[in-house]
Amino acid sequence: MIEWGLYNYWVVIFLMMTGLYVVIARGNLIKKIIGLNIFQVSVIMFYVSMGKVRGGTAPIEAAGFEVYSNPLPHVLMLTAIVVGVATSALALALVVRIKETYGTIEEDEIRRIEADEDAS
Amino acid sequence: MEGLWALISDDLPALQIAVPLLAATLCVLIRRPTAAWAVAMVVAWSSFANAGVLLHRVLTTGTISYVEGGWPVPWGIELRIDLLNALVLLVVTGICAIVLLAAPRSIDAEIPRDKQYLFYAVYLLCMTGLAGMTVTGDAFNIFVFLEISSLSSYALVSQGRTPRALTAAIQYLVMGTIGGTFILLGIGMLYMVTGTLNIVDLANQLALVGPNRTVMVAAACIAMGVGIKLAVFPLHIWLPNAYTYAPAIVTAFIAATSTKVAYYVLVRFAFSIFRINQTFDGAHSSAIAMMLGIAAMFAGSLVAIYQDDVKRMLAYSSVAQIGYMILGLSFANEYGLTGGLVHLFNHAIMKCGLFLVLACVLLRMGSTRLSAFAGLGRRMPLTFAAFVLGGLSLVGVPLTVGFVSKWYLVLGALEAGLWPVAVLILLSSILALVYIWRVVEVGYFKAPPEGADAITEAPFSMLLPTWILIGSTLVFGVWTSLSVGVASAAARMLIGGGS
């Protein structure tokens, strides 16, 4: 029998590393933001997995249910999702402004434009 | 008046968060720059007064615990103010209030008038986040307020005049979000092990659990995340650009507050929650922190010497000064930690003063490059004298605050039996002298460029806050019972394992 107990956490680690890699390796600012989102989602998944109790139901008291999942980490993640949305929104707004000023959202091209400015 | 005081007297900790948060929305609604500034001023100064009352109360009656909404601790969210965060709160709200004095004149030159009310709204939001991180007694709350303050500081940085401000802001955003998410991950692991988020309860539960693998990884994640926010040496790359390209007022504000609060969070986690000096391999983590601190002291100062833009120079100097704070923490003894905390207090005052000087120079000269400082000692004597005094404080000359913090850091090094580190602290001070001297030399001994006679002294509304801060670097350099008194009591409490 395969032990599935840690399956969620492997997914968390995989997503986290994927997200970090995308942030580091991609020069396109939109792709960076996507990477950042994947990274944040992995932590959300981590919290949600942590609160799950095997065989537990949603924590609503009702006859016939004895085991409940822990709702607290799930509730905390509502806040984290809001933070993630706000971060993405702000990042996208900045990218729009960058595109307007520099005409590109590729990091290496932006850096080249800035280096040219410094030289002149 | 009596009735009002009786009404709010018990709720002062919560008001530190609620008032600026509500006032921020009010600023958006009124849409007029002067009125928004007036609202922000009233809020910031009353928060400062509030912080003073709270510090007084902590000193006389001990730690304040405020239970939000009547939910009992550890289930409900607690605001907990002890000596450590009362001092940090006083610094943060004080800086917020004083910087606002200079804001209208300075941002008139950098932010369009129809957008200024938004600037004040975001400024107040940032203040909410910083005050919230400081007063809260709940680990998850720290993350939430950290993100509030970070998101608003990204927005503030992006308001700079040049397009570089945009790239600096997005770089800060990417780094800051990674840092914030690591902190969230670490807090999640702590919750997994202990089932609690209340800081006092966390510390007690962790003492029972002992240092297992999950706790170690949680500590690593949190140290990493806070390290990014604090701009500890190899994680500092967002800082120079963000400080250089942000509007002058924003630099003065952020440089003096956000890294300081991040340092507070690090101290809180390290000593109140993980109790690194008592439980798991404290020596090991101390050694890492010490190396990073020393590396920052030298790398930051050395790079600062070669900068052409004085604002960028001071940004790198901040990296070095954060190194001193980390060094103080790494000694994990009473003197060292006192040195770190006193330096938090002192560095906030002097760096804020110095960046306000740069705001004055930028307003009058249109640039903060070294060439703009030529002959400034004669053309803007008061402004430049403030720079010289602030610079001396950065070097650590006796009778200034910089000397007080370095004194305690050296004592800490000696108490830890590390006299070579004490020598390194003194050596790195010489580097600070070099980069400050470069500016002083240009300011006093170089003739101003032709046809620049029209330059006059900075406006009074900007000189006043600058001199309040520079004056206090001298006051607190001699009268140390507030800064050192509270910091050493807080350090004793932390080393003793209290919370």
Describe the structure.
The complex is a heterodimer of chains A (120) and B (499). Chain A has 120 residues and is mainly alpha-helical. Chain A is 72% helix and 0% strand. Chain A contains 4 helices and no strands. In chain A, helix 1 (7-25) runs antiparallel to helix 2 (29-51) and helix 2 (29-51) runs antiparallel to helix 3 (71-102). The N and C termini of chain A lie far apart (68 Å). The mean pLDDT of chain A is 89. The model of chain B has no long low-confidence stretch (mean pLDDT 90). The chains are: A mainly alpha (120), B mainly alpha (499). Chains A and B meet through helix 2 and helix 3 of A and helix 6 and helix 7 of B.
Name the descriptors.
heterodimer, A: 120 residues, mainly alpha, Helix Hairpins, 4 helices, 0% strand, elongated, B: 499 residues, two-stranded antiparallel sheet, 2% strand, globular
Instruction: Sketch the topology of chain B as an H/E string, one letter per element.
Output: HHHEEHHHHHHHHHHHHHHHHH
- Our Rg estimate of chain A from Cα atoms comes to 21 Å
Count of helical stretches of chain A: 4
* Estimated helix fraction of chain B: over 70%
Helix content of chain A: over 70%
Note the beta-strand portion of chain B.
under 5%
Give the N-terminus to C-terminus distance of chain A in angstroms: 68 Å
Average pLDDT metric of chain A: 89
Q: What is shown here, in short?
A:
Chain A is mainly alpha-helical. Chain A is built from four helices and no strands.
